[in-house]
Amino acid sequence: xxxxxxxRKECEELCGENARFLEEPKxxxxxxxxxxxLGRNPVEIAKQLEKDLQSRIKxxxxxxxxxxxxxxxxxxxxxxxxxxxxxxxxxxxxxxxGSQPRMKEKIMIEYxxxxxxxxxxxxxxRNICIGEAxxxxxxxxxxxxxxxxxxxxxxxxxxxxxxxxxNLGMSQEKNKGLFLGDVYAAANARMExxxxxxxxxxxxxxxxxxxxxxxxxxxxKKTRKWSLDYFGSIYKDFGAKFDHLYFESEVFxxxxxxxxxxxxxxxxxxxxxxxxADLKKQGLGVCVILKSDDDPxxxxxxxxxxxxxxxxxxxDKIIHVVGSEQRLYFQQMFKIFGFINPDWExxxxxxxxxxVMLQTGKISSRAGSVVTYEHLIEEGTEKAVEExxxxxxxxxxxxxxxxxxxxxxxxxxxxxxRTITFDWSEVLNFEGDTGPYLQYTYARALxxxxxxxxxxxxxxxxxxxxxxxxxxxxxxxxxxxxSARDLKPNYVANxxxxxxxxxxxxxxxxxxxxxxxxxxxxxxVAATAHVLKNGMExxxxxxxxxx
Length: 547
Hints:
The chain is an alpha/beta fold. It has helices at about 5-15, 40-55, 80-95, 120-140, 155-165, 175-190, 195-210, 215-235, 250-265, 300-315, 325-340, 340-345, 375-390, 400-410, 425, 435-450, 465-475, 475-485, 490-510, 520-540, and strands spanning about 30-35, 65-70, 70-75, 105-110, 145-150, 245, 270, 275-280, 285-290, 315-325, 350-355, 355-360, 420. The strands form four sheets. Strands 6-5-4-10-11 form a five-stranded parallel sheet, with helices on both faces. Strands 1-3-2 form a three-stranded antiparallel sheet.
């Protein structure tokens, strides 16, 4: 049990049946018991409880004192004892600090899922940042995590790109994945307002589903590999190592069979030749699950996908990281899943997120309105190099790591229900609420440890600032637990920023090397470095030893 949890437990034991009312106040105490629900006169009740609680504090307790303050009972930690235990625990556990025991529950997180034959754009970046952070967060919390990536490798968008390759005569670029994105964008632009071309592309799409054109299939397979290789290089930047890559091309046939089965069972019905699920009674409208020409839709494929996922992995939950614009669609699909197997409805969860907006003029696009990952990270790396040179930092080779830290933190520090406005001048600020600020703080902590010839030694701390820093370190396991429970990696990001800010205050106000408290303060610095690194690891940010 981590120290703050131990302190909380001791306070709960003192409070008995009133423990459920304990809360963490923003100031004045470490825990507080509001007495409003304990009687008509909460101020008087607090005074009466004060002496009783004080008399029952044990000698070895982490609870130092209990005080009545108006209608509240305030509980205070024994700072010296507590800080010693915290620092020692962090130094002992190192990278395991904040981890929870292994659990049996198995969770599949389905994220990234870009479409082949299209560019990997800035929207995918937020998706993969959220998905990978959730995987690491849940693993840290003891869950067995299955990383899944469901990629759209067949359908009208692929048909557009293949038509473009056959008809537009565009010069192939070195980056084949980006080239396909450009071809798709050009074909899509040519198709607008052209019914004849729409019909041609529909024929190509149908031929792919029916595997009726060998030359077309060969072109599809070759270019599909281009896209997958391109995506693979991007996944490496985000540390995403998927356990299973799912593809629309491998699930649509089973999806068609399942759609027809739903029709036979009377769960679905025919409407103008198409198979639909009428969900109006559930307030979810109508969902088409198979077109009249028997070509599959997203919904058709998702039927095949969910069956494959549950049969192969038997997960306790599947979390789909997908944009908020698909909220109704997932509500419809989960309801349809429930018609097949009630567990499939209850065990699927849509984690939605909002859009990423770009500051006008900050980042140019090669494909109209689409800003690709490459352009984003190239511009970020260039700006990181400029920032490094301005600050006189020698580690220019770290520029891409700094740019990636800026991107990942910017995508994760906001709650998923908030739109992000991305601006390089903000996200690369070494002194703001940014990824590079966390990296810089970590490197600063390590520089202190390198300067000293003595070894860190955990011991009771003395100053209020040191106590505050130790208390912040003690909160890390609870932050991990809460973040995993609520599926909100932004809790970790916000905590790390607060920790870094507090450490930098300590750095500016407290001398470490050459003082009589050197070993004790080195232990505090080392513990802070461990927690910063552990937290950045969850966010996918590389901890740089020098900056």
